[in-house]
Design goal:
Elements lengths: L1 H11 L14 E4 L2 E4 L2 E5 L6 E6 L4 H6 L5 E10 L7 E4 L9 E10 L2 E17 L5 E10 L2 E7 L2 E5 L3
Parallel strand pairs: 3-11, 6-7
Antiparallel strand pairs: 1-2, 3-4, 4-5, 5-7, 6-8, 7-8, 8-9, 9-10, 9-11
Length: 163
């Protein structure tokens, strides 16, 4: 019985993108940032669209609500939904994305103070809205201005978050 409880607990702690089942890539080097994707959420801001937040924290939604004391890396991609109902966006560098476009960045912060930031410069994202309110990132491929490396992964199911 104890072994079954431990196994159930370990399975419950499995994070999106875990490598245990040969899953999608979760480790990235962007410039000098070594990013291990541990969790992610989808946020629907009041102004419309949606934001995908991916973090090295165990609970991205909580990390958005609180200020982690230890260093944290957060990738945010703000998507302006396409007007044709499709679920794909192109990453652009404009400050305000048009329909079907996305802007974002990856940042490292310690205790709420930003240590490093790289703006998303190119790429794309596609997703599926699920009936339970979650969103699955079908594919994401993003490059960053002034930094070598790309964030490229797939098949991540993100819960909804209301910070």
């Amino acid at each position: 019985m104890r072994g079954a409880l431990i196994a159930a607990f370990l399975l419950a702690c499995d994070t999106p993108g875990s490598r245990q089942g040969g899953g999608p890539p979760v480790d990235f080097t962007i410039g000098a940032l070594a990013f291990h994707l541990s969790s992610g959420v989808t946020v629907a801001p009041a102004g419309g669209g949606m934001t995908f937040d991916l973090s090295d924290q165990a609970d991205t939604c909580m990390a958005l609500q609180l200020v982690p004391v230890q260093p944290e890396i957060l990738f945010s991609l703000h998507v302006s939904l396409p007007t044709d109902g499709s679920t794909r966006a192109t990453v652009v560098t404009t400050p305000v994305p048009g329909p079907g476009q996305a802007t974002g960045s990856i940042t490292q912060s310690t205790g709420g103070n930003q240590d490093a930031q790289f703006a998303a410069s190119d790429g794309s994202v596609s997703w599926t809205a699920n009936a339970d309110g979650s969103t699955t990132i079908d594919s994401i491929d993003v490059g960053f201005a002034g930094a070598a490396g790309r964030l490229t992964t797939y098949g991540l199911t993100l819960s909804a978050c209301t910070p």
